[in-house]
Amino acid sequence: MPLRGIKVIELGGLAPGPLCGKFLRDFGASVTVVNKVVDNTVVDINVVNDGKELVYLDIKSPSGSEIFQKLVASADILIEPFRAGVMEKLNLGPEVLLANNPKLIYARLTGYGQSGPLSRVAGHDINYLSLTGLLSLYGWREKYPAPPSNFSEFAGGSLMCLTGILLALIDRNKTGRGQVIDSNIVEGISYLGSWLMRSKNVLFNEPRGHNWLDGGAHFYDTYETKDGKFMAVGALEPKFYQELISKLGFSYEEAPQMGNNQVREKFQKRFLEKTRDEWVEIFGTSDACVTPVLSIEEAVKFQHNLDRNSFFQNEDGVITPIRAPRLSNYPEGAKQMPFRANDTYTVLQRLGYSNEKIQELEEEEIVKCKI
């Protein structure tokens, strides 16, 4: 795998950081997660920790800080998810850790960034998205703005942090030096929204819910079927729209693409005449841009996804997407890796700590070797 040999230390957190660590792990990096000693819930909450080493360590204590610095001294990447200033208070900020390991890539993944009035304030996905202006685009017509589920934290947080890490690895190959990455969700999701922002006056110039891409157009919406399920219609281009109305049994005069507010009602009435599966059969592999709205469980069994082995299901029934994108030099699909309950003892041994010292550290609640 392309990242084999890369060592990652991930400070335990929720959602964006663990997902970023998963991406690195799936493409070959070894990832060690450092969790709080008192935290017994990380494995259950962070369902993307499969295949990672889990260590329980009190980095606030002098001995715990020493262990943490030893871990980071041989690492390539540190993923740090805390608010601005937290690591500096612990004397574990970039200046300290890069002084001991100049090749370290210190990735700081936060909501608001390392500076500014909100840098030390709590927030969640909806808050970050609201500050970008993009939340104003999401929601039903004549209703309140509605956030897409964790879109900002994963796209603007995990993926943009991953991009920064990979860029820093390329730069390190040229310069031999590590660096600090200020990856924050507000700026990350704003950057990902560049197309939406720049096209606002063209595609989002009407109130929310009245534009082509937000449910305002009958040719870009979802429709209920006879069995209470739904089909997604996305026939934007005229040639695709013509294919759509042909499959629905309408002429263009009966269902013009523009300028007729009654077409949506005609579409809905027609879709209610058949079940979702019947419509899937009718539209098949046509260019009408019509697809079924599937549940996650159904997506695993959908023929296209089956043919490509896009998902796999473990013995407990947990559904997992294969890693993406696919690389031609590494064609094998992602394998389900076991969850590791606690690797603290093994990691401490690897750092050179004796059994007696490990027992002493556990008695002092600086580490936890059993859960």
Automatic annotation (TrEMBL):
One of its GO terms (cellular component) is mitochondrion. One of its GO terms (biological process) is bile acid metabolic process. PANTHER family: ALPHA-METHYLACYL-COA RACEMASE, SUCCINYL-COA--D-CITRAMALATE COA-TRANSFERASE. This is Alpha-methylacyl-CoA racemase. It holds the Pfam family CoA_transf_3. The lineage of its organism: Eukaryota, Metazoa, Ecdysozoa, Arthropoda, Hexapoda. One of its GO terms (molecular function) is alpha-methylacyl-CoA racemase activity. It comes from Parthenolecanium corni. InterPro entries: CoA-transferase_III (IPR050509), CoA-Trfase_fam_III (IPR003673), CoA-Trfase_III_dom3_sf (IPR044855), CoA-Trfase_III_dom_1_sf (IPR023606). Belongs to the CoA-transferase III family. It comes from the Eukaryota.
